[in-house]
Amino acid sequence: MSEKRSVSEMFGCNVFNDCVMRERLPKAVYKDLKKTIEEGTDLNPEIADVVANEMKEWALEKGATHFTHWFQPMTGVTAEKHDAFITPTEDGKVLLEFSGKELIKGEPDASSFPSGGLRATFEARGYTAWDCTSPAFIKETPDSTILCIPTAFCSYTGEALDKKTPLLRSMQALDIQATRLLHLLGKKNVKNVNTSVGPEQEYFLVDKEKYLQRKDLIFTGRTLFGAMPPKGQEMDDHYFGIIRERIGKFMKELNEESWKLGITAKTQHNEVAPAQHELAPIYASNNIATDHNQLLMETMRRVAERQGLKCLLHEKPFKGINGSGKHNNWSLVTNTGKNLLEPGETPHDNQQFLLILSAIIKAVDEHADLLRMAASTPGNDHRLGANEAPPAIISIFLGEQLEDVVKQLVTRGEATRSKHGDKLASGVHTLPDFEKDATDRNRTSPFAFTGNKFEFRMVGSTQSISDPNVVLNTIVADALAEVCDELEKVDGDLQDVMMEAHEITKRMLTDHQRVIFNGDGYSDAWVKEAERRGLPNIKSMVEAIPALIQDKSVKMFEKFGVFTKAELESRVEILYEQYAQTINIEALATLDIAKKQIVPAVMKYQKTLADSVAVLKQTGLDTTVQESLLNDITENLKKLYAAIGVLETETDKAQSMEDAAEQSCYYHDVVFACMDSVREPADKLEMLVAKEDWPMPSYGDLIFEV
Fold this sequence. Notes:
The chain is of the alpha+beta class.
């Protein structure tokens, strides 16, 4: 048995982090690399050999035999190709080597990953480039120990083929504009501004044996059939409830594996739905948080597998109960440690905060369609707009305190007061009184201010958080750039600049206050009110995708070097393809399960029941109940078989379409509805056929027996 280590000893033990680099690298090399990481200066290629050698020695001590350039292609998952640390010698032996060239550059096959036309099949060359801002790490599995080097992935012609490159570009754009603004406001000591992100991850756990009996879960990640059990989540007894021993064991191992990788797994609890849970980390730099979240999802799946469980990350694995999201908590932090979204005790006096806040409000209002697109996946279409997740309409919750400050600025031209929380008195003498927050929380808002950060609540549980953060970083950079352009025209001292900043703040709040909404985002009244305000209500992924290639979007992304027009067009094609392929797989799985499992099982039960009726009739007994049940089964079986035929026809038609946008819309509007038509009689039949004769575990088996 391995020696038990404390959390402090365990944390980051498999990461080539700052502590390891400071200890192992020569001082000059460490200083040079650190400057690149912290200040964004150009990487000095001359230090690569030294870093590579020390990284290799450290990895070998950890038992590693191979290294990989770990990257994040447009598939939404990570990719890796393992190379051994061996170089053959003339005497037939090998040396263990790892060069600076191998550290800096890799060459995977670019034509084998989604490129949206940026790479043809015969044009294979692509490059992975070392991202030194995200530390290398050791991935341990029962079969291997691999040194993983986070990298960006681009084509031979320089276009981004991954999710990391645009993220780094967007972080750089926001850093430049936020730092520029702070310098104009007199904060000359600020060298850079970083985006800090904390993604909360929701997930389901089910028993592996039951999972393997559900072909829909295996092929699509969600259940395509399933009647609701007698009990769902209506008792509200699972949320924050006692964690079962089996789940606690999983969480314990997940925490340990995460801590080894430097992932600050902090909070864990049961979520609203049975078998649903959540893990939330402490905030990290946007880039590292994105890498960590990808690693976390992978680790969740791996740990669950080892413990006879399956981790479901789909946004809606079970119809009728809560789906899973990934709340993206986002803030701006300077190199001096100042959170720019901290309002302070008197927000009405915090002119810098109010200026940045108003710029964010402007950005969200002007680019609501892009933010909606950034939270779009086929799975999230099941979730957004339901009474479990934010609506598809983008709005901002500020809370009573800030809403009041905004109202003062808009109506009177200045804010002179800030609301504060009262004492919370429990009425029990032995319990302490304490001061409440200045405002309540709003769980229905898609973009909520929660004290010193914004919580983008629409993000889907399977998504890479790169997508929403690329958009968020870029639209805010754009708004800040406009503010800076105006402030730079001021002919005067800092006081004159601050006066102009005040005027800009008032104007932006006045022009964009329509996006502020503190009420119930689930209500029908809000849908009507949002329409009156002119806010977009984009209900599906296929409706959201075109936002990427609108003229205003292309102009903005190209302005800041985040995406070229060609890169945006490629992503549109990839998104349409991914949507169509996802629904096509679901349609084919629906047909496969219905034809090969459900129909034969129902027919077998139908025959058993018919034989029973015949026998009972011979004895002269009343068969009214049996015949009624048999008729119900027969009618639903007929509906099911007819619906199967329609789904087959429409799926064939969708598959034959060549235009990606037209095909995706057809899958969304027609094929998806046909799948529901198959499911409806099948779910009714599940309630009519004896449990032991139904060909797959039920919802109750999956969510309550784990």
